[in-house]
Amino acid sequence: MNPSKSFGWIARMNLTLLASIIGALLVGVAFVYSACSIRELDALRRLYLLHAQMGVIGLLLCLGLAYINYQDILRARWLFYAGTLLLLVLTLLIGDKTMGARRWVAGVQPSELAKLATILVLAEWLGRREASKGIGMYLGTLALTAAPMALIFLQPDLGTTLVFLPTVFAMLFVARVSPRAVGVTIGAAVLAIVLLLGLIVASESEDVPPQTREKIRKMLPLSAYQRDRLVVFLYPDRDPFGRGWNKRQSEIAVGSGGLWGKGYLKGDQNLLGYLPASVASNDFIFSVLAEETGFVGSMIVLLLAVGILLPTLAVAYVCQDGAGRLLCVGVAMVTFCHLFVNIGMTIGLLPVTGVPLPFISSGRTFLLTMMTAYGLVQSVAVHGRETAPRF
Amino acid sequence: MIEFRGTTQTFDGWRIPVLGIGFAIGIAILVWRLHDVQVTRTSAFAGRQNRQSIRRVLLPSPRGRIYDRRGVCLADNRPNPCLAVFMEELRRPGGWSNTIDAVEAQLDAVAAIIGRPRTLTRSEIATHVRKRLPLPLPVWQNVDDETLARFEERVTATPGVDVYVQPERVYPQGSLAAHVLGYAGREKPEPMNDERYHFMLLGMFGRAGIEAQYNAVLEGVPGCRLIRVDVSGYRRLDLAGTDPKPGRDVSLTIDTIVQRELERSLAGQIGAGVVLDVRNGDVLALASAPTFDPNEMTPAPTRARWESIRRDPGDILFNRAVQGRYPPGSTFKVIVGLAAMGEGGFTMADTYTCKGEYEMKPKPIRCSHNAHHGTVDLRLALQVSCNGYFCQTAAQIGPEPIRQMARELGLGAVSGIDLPGEYAGLVPDAARKRALYHDVWRLGDTCLMSIGQGDLLVSPLQMAVATAAIANGGRVLRPRIMQSETQGGSVVRTIRWRPEQLAVIRRGMEDAVSLGTARHVLGSAVTAAGKTGTAEYGTGSRLKKYAWMIAYAPAENPAVAMALVIEDAADSGGMAAGPIVRRVFSAIFGAADQTPPEETGAPSAPTANHHAAIGGRA
Question: A97 touching B, CB under 8 A?
């Protein structure tokens, strides 16, 4: 059977994955509406419509990509990668500046595209070269990753920058590239994080003299607001009405939701403006959802997440092709990182970062990127097992 | 194995499952934490949310009304319709000034509709925004029906402004019993040291008189409304709350007819009078002149009114009846007489020969009008108010029995009346004189005290209590203004006088009315007994007189006692105070005032139903 000649390809898609994505999209439309329905700005109030439109476009895109063989798309990987890097450079130069960072250019958020571009490049590269799985390939991978990371770090957007690392290391791990080097690097990274937090604790404790504090602050490779977010994370009660506001208010939203929630469109934290309008529909959409639907609603979101992650890993597992397999692994890891970091920050597990919740947060670049990514995963599901080599 | 482009990658089957286990651990951590936050600790977070968004507003309760003993309403509540701004309906995005602009524009629009200028300034609006944002802001007070109608017609054109009713205190009888009632003012928004409420809607708070004394009873229990405010502090919605419990209505012992007569008689003068029921201490009337209209004091006097009150030399808010300090003058002689007949061992056989003045250094004590009373006994001495007799008597018995009798009758101590700010009076003694003047107590001091001068100070209320005790046979009563079920009143102490001891004094007082200095009381509807007093104060050309009268009636079976003082009187106590006592007694005991011919034109008050005041025992 040739799937490209009949409708068999639709049956070969992972339908659990498709259903979970559609479910997550519907949840997204519902709660973007809830987060914005009382806002004064028309643009904000209509955000849910935009989300629905992007969702439909994204679904079509997803289905279209599923039909096309991902290997054909992978051929354009360098073009995609180079184009993304160019956009990232443009962002730094002429991007729209909001809240001290340049993250958008012409309505597009290139940092989201860069995640997918890097996954595509690495999937092909790590999946093909049986011969050179040594330290050379490892360093090459780091170099390919470092370029977009550095450009995103300069925006600055620490959260998105850091999402690259687990993604790339998950791919290195599955591709069995230089396990020793990977292990050492992960160990070093963990050590670095511990060291960083340790230094922050050392400098920001109440009893540290101001001169010492300034000295340690200068040693940290962080901007002032990045440090503040970590300080707020470590000392939640220090500045509840300033820098700690969003963290505190989102925790109150989630916590006050209780088991069953307060009911759709009845989230007080959002209605009363304690969750700022600027973040309620994107970074903190989970707080709105969790307040209105409670623990039960949170579990449904996590169930949808499992419905996305597990099939994606399953597609990777049964894929016969290294590139397809690594593509799925990369996409799954990006999804997991966003999910974990986003939900984790609303409940005080992790510092506050601008990492949106896949399919649910408003934000069209990220939504379309994720839909593209899962279109490719579906393509791997359709084409990654039985298609014959085409040359 | 299917061949792909390039070499086939060998595949460790365990690496992707390991990744899956990693995801599972991550999701398990989220589940655990979400369960902790949303299920285990949900009440803590709900509490934090309520703390930051729920405001408790104190709702004042309707204040209890005040009635006199006949059921005449003395203090009532009336709705004060206001036009008020509801800030949350006028909020504008951006800075506060945008919202304040909107409020100002809306107020100007309403001002044009109702034809009343806006008096609220921008800074007053800003203060409200800063301090009391979720509460309505009253702009136009006491809006009349016509204005309201004009407003209601256009109400859709004026969002954010609406009718809001504030309860207000009103005193239907005007200035009647003003010093007894006191007044209630609009409560100031106190800084919230009370954690239970974030905001207070302003209620009325007793500031003087009964309103202050029984504020707790009249006030009731305030209610509480819970409102939810948004992050900017605007009211978003009302939650449940508790309703206020209205304050209790109270009835006073005051009899408006007696009170009105007393006030009318005091009008235009400076002075005070107290009328007591001698059987139980009920205050039938208590007046201080000049007086004021408590309606002008509530919710707060205008600035101009406050200025004029402050500058008024008459000190109109001062309750002279309980706070005034006066030398009792000759009215004190009844107390000297009681002491002489008691401790002093005097009898009617002890006489004194009056030659018009009593030798005393540095200057002699004269009898009024330089009268030569001749041979006087105690009864006659009270009738004619012979100074020499009492100086002589006091010199013989010494000051201590006099002080003791004065104190037993309640002088020098608060009577315990249920009105704030009572003056305790002063019964001078040697220790005080030594401390104050570095001098010993001399015979002259005793003599001055015996005629109610010197440092001796009393309030009219104290003299009324003492007179009531003489009238009722020795029961010193705690005077009361709040009606009470207690029959016979609250007895502070009972003085055991010998029958003839009291009889002489009372006969002397009866004679004073029928024959002597107090004869201006004659002609009232009832037989009376009394004693006048004229205490001098000031020196030289500024020498002035306090005109006093204490009296009780009916003489043979006393029911009421009164004490009266006129400051700065032109005449003696008998002349200045006597006619007032007569009119008050007539008001109480009903029959037409048999006004002596030379006093025609004096108001005659009595109307029907007066006997109720005194239980029909007249």
Answer: no
Nearest-by-Cβ selection for B45 from A255, A272, A387: A255
Does residue B426 surpass a pLDDT of 70? yes
Q: Are A258 and B39 in contact (CB under 8 A)?
A: yes
**Span B82-100, average pLDDT:** 86
Chain-chain contact of B5 with A391 (C-beta, under 8 angstroms): yes
Q: What is the pLDDT at residue B596?
A: 45
Give yes or no for a contact between B113 and B154, defined as CB atoms under 8 angstroms apart: yes
Tally of CA atoms within 13 A in the half-sphere of A371 that contains its CB: 25
The beta strand positions in A66-205, using DSSP E, are 96-98, 101-104
Task: Give the separation between CA A138 and CA B341, rounded to whole angstroms.
Answer: 124
- Over range B386-415, report the average pLDDT: 94
pLDDT at position A6 is 66
ipTM for this model? 0.94
Q: What is the pTM of this model?
A: 0.70
Tell me which chain B residue has its CA closest to the CA of residue A345.
B30
Does pLDDT of A143 surpass 90? yes
What does the radius of gyration of chain B's CA atoms come to, in whole angstroms? 36
Average pLDDT over every residue of A293-309: 97
Q: Where are any strands of DSSP class E within B270-420?
A: 270-277, 283-289, 352-354, 357-358, 365-366, 374-376
Residues of chain B with C-beta less than 8 angstroms from the C-beta of A251: 37, 45
The shortest C-alpha distance from A87 to chain B (Å) reads: 31
Q: What residues 201-230 of chain A have any CB closer than 8 A to a CB of chain B?
A: none
Interface residue A272 vs chain B (CB under 8 A): yes
Measure Cα distances from B394 to B116, B344, B502 in Å: 71, 9, 18
DSSP state of B330: G
DSSP string, A211-262: HHHHHHHHHSSS-HHHHHHHHHHHSTTS-TTTTTHHHHHHHHHHHHHTTT-S
Helix %, strand %, coil % of chain A (to 5): 70, 0, 25
Is residue B147 scored above 90 in pLDDT?
Answer: no
Taking CA–CA distances from B30, the nearest residue in chain A reads A344
| Per-residue CA distances from B169 to A57, B296, B301 (Å) | 69, 11, 13
- Categorize the per-residue pLDDT at B2 as very low, low, confident or very high, splitting at 50, 70 and 90: very low
- Alpha-carbon separation of residue A284 from A90, A263, A345, B21, B96 (angstroms): 28, 18, 9, 27, 27
User: DSSP string covering A301-322, please?
Assistant: HHHHHHHHHHHHHHHHHH-S-H
Q: Identify from A124, A169, A296, A317 which residue to disrupt to test chain B contact, counting B C-beta atoms within 10 A and taking the largest count.
A: A317
Please say if the pLDDT value at position A194 is more than 70: yes
Range A113-132 average pLDDT = 85
Distance between CA atoms of residues B502 and B472, nearest Å:
10
DSSP type of residue B10? P
Q: Which of B12, B15, B44 sits opposite A255 (nearest CB)?
A: B44
Q: B34, A306: Cβ pair inside 8 Å?
A: no
pLDDT score of B612: 39
The answer to whether the CB atoms of A309 and B23 lie below 8 A apart is yes
Amino acid B474 reads G
Per-residue pLDDT band for B462 (boundaries 50, 70, 90) equals very high
Residues of A in contact with B34 (CB under 8 A): 254, 290, 295, 298-299, 302, 343, 347
Q: Do A274 and B53 touch (CB under 8 A)?
A: yes
Helix and strand numbers, DSSP H then E, in chain A: 18, 2
> B222 is written with which tokens?
């305030």
Give chain B's mean pLDDT: 86
Q: Which residues, in sequence order, are bridge partners of residue B54?
A: B228
